Each structure stands twice: as C-alpha cells, then as structure tokens.
Amino acid sequence: MDNVTKNCQNCKKDFIIEPEDFNFYEKIKVPPPTFCPECRLQRRMVFRNERSLYKDVCDLCQRRIVSQYSPDKPFVIYCRECWNSDRWDSLQYGQDYDWEKPFFIQFQKLLVKVPRIALVQLSTNLNCDYANFLADCKNVYLSQSVVESENIFYSYAVDKCFDIFDCSQVKECAQCYENIDCIRNNNSKFLFRSRECIDSSFLFDCVNCQNCFMSSNLRNKQFVIRNAQYSREEYEARMKEIHPECYQDFINLKSEFSSLIKNGIHRFANLVKTTSCTGDNILNAKNVRFSFDIPTGENLKFCIRTVNLKDSWDVTGGITGELVYETAVAGHEGNLLCFVSNADILREVEYSDWCKNSSNLFGCAGVKNKQYCIFNKQYTKEEYEKLRARIIEQMKGMPYVDPRGTGTPNLRHIFR
Ligand SMILES: [Zn+2]
Ligand SMILES: [Zn+2]
Fold first, then answer.
1. From the CA of 117, how far away is ligand 2's center (Å)?
2. What is the per-residue pLDDT across 125-184, written as a single tens digit (0 to 9) for each?
3. Phi and psi at residue 163, in whole multiples of 5°?
4. Buried-most residue among 11, 334, 356, 379 (CB within 10 A)?
5. What residues pack around ion ligand 1 (CB closer than 5 A)?
C-alpha cells in the first residue's frame, strides 16, 4: 500500500497516512483518521489539564480539595478516597442505548453526571495533594507528570527521581536543581541536556562528568572549569572564588550559561540509545516516530510522554501497555484501548473516561472492576458483543459535526 493524502476535517489541511499507519489501524480494527495528527493531538489535550488547579470541595465527603476542574464546571468531583470507595456505584448511572440519538450526545450526558476524581493520580501517592498526573509517588508538590519519585517540587516529567527542585524532563536523577532534559545526574545544578554527571553545575551537553563547572560538550571529564582542565587542587581553589550564593554573581553566571548554550554544539535531537526514532527526548527506544518525551518505548507513533508503551499510535501519557490508540492518559497496563481518557488497568475499552481495573467497556464513565458494560449498564458477553457491533455500525453513518459552527454538544467542548 502507498501513502494516501487526506484532507483534515478540522483544519482543512492535507495530511499523509503512511502504510505503517494503515497496518496499525487494521491491527486494532479502526477506520483511518479524518483529523490530521496535530488536530488529533489538540483533541486529546482537551482531556489533559496538567497545571491549572482550583480549590474545590469533594461532592461526597465535603472535604476541601485541589482539583483540575474549575468549580463552575457541571461535573461531580470526588476526592480520590471517596471515588475509590464503595460509597457509590458507577452502574447506578447506567443508561439504555437510545437508537434515536447519536452516540456522542448520549455519551456526553453520562460524562456530566458520573463522578470523576479531582486529580489524575494513579496507584498510591502519599502527601501529593497539590500535584497532578502522578503514579507511585511520595511528597510531590506543584509538579506534573511524575512517576515513581519522591520529594519532587515545581517540576515536570520526572521519572524515578529523588530530591528534585525546578527540573523538567529528568530521569533517575537525585538531589538536582534546574536540570532540563537530563538522565542519571546526582547533586548537580543548572544542567541542560546532560547525563551521568555528579557534583557539577552549569553544564550543557555533558556526559559522565564529575566536578565540572560552566562547560559544554564534555565527555568523561573531571575538574574542568569553562572547558579547561585543572588538577583537583587547582579546581578546588578556583571554585572557592566563584560565589553563586551572591545574587549579582548568580545573575552573571546564568547569563554566561545562556551564551555557553548558544555557542555550544547542539545535537539535532535528544535521542539516546534509540533505533529508527524521530522526535525529541527519546531514550531506550525502537521504531518510535513523530513522538516526544519517551523514556522507553517500541513501535510508537504520534505519542507524547509515554513510559514503556508498545505498538501504539496517538497516545498522550501512559505507563506500560500495548495497542493503545487515540488516548489521553492510558494509565498502567492499557491494552487495546481506543478513544479513551483517564484510564488505568483497562483491556478492550473504547470511548470511555475515568474507568479502572476493567475490560470490555464501550461508552462508559467511572466504571471500576467490571466487564461488558455499555453506557454504565451491565450486559452478558453475548449481549455486549451484539450491541457494541450494532452501535459501531450506527456510528459509521453519523455525519461529522463541527462543534465550533453550531454549538452542538460534542466531546471537544465538554471539558472546556
Ligand atoms: Zn487538522
Ligand atoms: Zn471525598
């Protein structure tokens, strides 16, 4: 099969569907997309509010909470403890399928009434009430997208780190401040695109360095200042003359560092230990294309910030799993998910939001520990398969409605 050029139904620009894309759509049995990759990303990001947090009250226990939904939204918001408790049952919101109405109009009605969790926090997180998009963390404050980490403050995209302040895109770092796009650094400040560095500061594109200062493009060095080699004694003596704790000196050092980055040699992309990858900030990966911020992955396309995901297209956020498509927050162990958001441990799930520990769901919201549900209503396996197939058949005949034109309720507005 050759490349096929299509016109995006949203932005009206042409985009290309490649043979590998068709193979993937065939594998998971979805029709090729009608939106271009950028418009698909925008549609997914509507479901992902990482940083705008609001004061709110849990609608069940009335405790004061921090929420990613502003209080003027029509949603029912529960704190994590209440949502996970047995004090409510998502199946009590079950709806029969109405063949007179389009699927999405009915799905929206369900999404508005079923309780959702204030913040996206997967597995167990301790003392993390002011942080969003976490999994298995302890003591995280005003940070986003943090996985298996402890003592993290004001940081973004952090994996397996300890004692981190003001960092972005860091993996396996400890005791670091202002590290950006860094891996396995220790006790270091102001490091940019550097890895395996210890007791260093103001380094750009350095690898395996120890006690180095204000340098760029170093490999396996020790006692280097401004790209000049010193003995241990000289290094220690010279470092005593530098005072980043003095405000004016610090401002001067930051300005010097900016020039250093500008004049350093830049790699075309931050790709480390990768094979056949295109994008940026990708490591330990194979066949990852048009993707960004992938600490490990295989056979991915149009993905952002997924950890250890395989054979998936169009995923924003997810930890382990495979065959995931068009999903914002795939959670842990997402398998065969299509058009899902806020998932965790799901298998064979389509068009669902905030579901957990379940399989074979279609058009569900807030469903936990269930199987074979449509619009939060329980069916037998046979009933489920028949009804699902019939709904998909009906959806094929539905015309696309531009939500900006008519104000018709549509998934694209409901979180705005
Ligand atoms: Zn488009
Ligand atoms: Zn509560």
1. 9
2. 999 999 999 999 999 999 999 999 999 999 999 999 999 999 999 999 999 999 999 999
3. 50, 70
4. 334
5. 8, 10-11, 36, 39
